[in-house]
Amino acid sequence: MADKPRIKLPKEAKKGEIIQIKTLVSHLMESGQRKDAQGKPIPRKIVNKFACEFNGKPVFSCALEPAISANPYIQFDARIDEEGTFKFAWTDDDGSVVAAEEKIALKG
Amino acid sequence: MSIRYVSLAGLAMAALVLSAIAASGQEAERKGIPAPPGHVFQTIISGYQFRTKETRALQDDDLENPGFLAVERAADVWKAVDGSEGKSCMSCHGEAETTMKGVGAAMPKWSEKLNKPVNLEQQINICRTEHMKAQPWAFKSNELTDMTTFVRSQSRGMPVAVKTDGPMSPWFEKGKEIYYTRVGQLDLACASCHEKNNGKFMRADFLSQGQTNGFPTYRLRDQRLIPLHERFEGCMFDVRGVPYKPLSDEFLALEVYVAWRGIGLPVETPSVRN
């Protein structure tokens, strides 16, 4: 999963406005339930945790389970009270973390 | 006696009105474009129109569309040098956003040098072996499918404009013959499903008219992009026939013919399908 995650949120928002955040990360999400051509189980490899923080405070997080499709797409809302930085992190089964950041400014 | 006739007629009228409403409702939902002259259909309808609104929404939003992961990957490969000539795709073609516009919409195209049509996958590999002196990518490999998707997506929204006259016409005729030839244990031709029965349910899905404007398509079932010839193979396998080989002359002829059947439809690559 060398690809950059895809994140979409507005560049700026009014104070108190509720914005929508869309994320999509490229990942195989191998469930561990499948078998290869030789009949051996393919080891599980999924992104098991997603978390989003805003200025160090948690906004949204979730645990992902094996039934979730490849390239998981996650969408959620957040209320903006101050300008700052969103930090996103996807934690893989092998412990590696894909991290990304997006800034948002206050309008007017 | 006469009263009974009247009521029967009334019922028949009601049934007619009802079926007319049902038909118009479906027509309104599936928008098509007028077919080219000589086509069997009055209107040709993209496979997009046969999908649920959730699947269509997935295709419409570039961020949600998982096919765009391939486009982004290939955009980097476009600039990467490969092979002994020290060239990248960009060395010859420049910015794909301008130079590749419309290229994918006109494929397969006649090649004077090879004296046969070539499709986009083959053209990419010709560039790699002849100009870059690099290894060709295998069919179905992520690299080839990604690059095909990337180049074709530069023609997004442009009408499919494949040429079928001149030297292409024998290939067109050959493709037409394959389209109408029944094969396999189930004894079905392409036309049996996509011409005679499109819009009806097969298993849990609607049969489309079988257009090529969305390929390579991201199939939710496979969770990856599927190139056209793999789809051809899949169809032939499903009717329990022995498929032709991908990139074979037979499939190339079929691609020419099927592309013509969807001529004028906007290129949707990368589209999202079930």
UniProtKB/TrEMBL annotation, chain A:
Residues of the Sulphur oxidation protein SoxZ domain: 7-101
Xref: Pfam families: SoxZ
Official protein name in the record: Thiosulfate oxidation carrier complex protein SoxZ
Automatic annotation (TrEMBL), chain B:
Record's keyword terms, sorted: Electron transport, Heme, Iron, Metal-binding, Periplasm, Signal, Transferase, Transport
Protein name, UniProt field: SoxAX cytochrome complex subunit A
Self-association state and partner proteins as the record states: Heterodimer of SoxA and SoxX.
InterPro entries assigned to the protein according to its UniProt record, in alphabetical order: Cyt_c-like_dom (IPR009056), Cyt_c-like_dom_sf (IPR036909), SoxA (IPR025710)
Signal peptide: 1-22
Superkingdom of the source species: Bacteria
Cytochrome c domain residues: 69-155
Gene this chain is encoded by: soxA
Subcellular location(s) per record: Periplasm
Enzyme class: transferase
Species this protein is from: Bradyrhizobium ontarionense
Record Pfam families: SoxA-TsdA_cyt-c
EC number: 2.8.5.2
Catalytic activity: S-sulfanyl-L-cysteinyl-[SoxY protein] + thiosulfate + 2 Fe(III)-[cytochrome c] = S-(2-sulfodisulfanyl)-L-cysteinyl-[SoxY protein] + 2 Fe(II)-[cytochrome c] + 2 H(+); L-cysteinyl-[SoxY protein] + thiosulfate + 2 Fe(III)-[cytochrome c] = S-sulfosulfanyl-L-cysteinyl-[SoxY protein] + 2 Fe(II)-[cytochrome c] + 2 H(+)
Transmembrane spans: none
Cited SUPFAM superfamilies: Cytochrome c
Family, per entry: Belongs to the SoxA family.
NCBIfam families reported for this sequence: thiosulf_SoxA
PROSITE patterns attached to this UniProt entry: CYTC (PS51007)
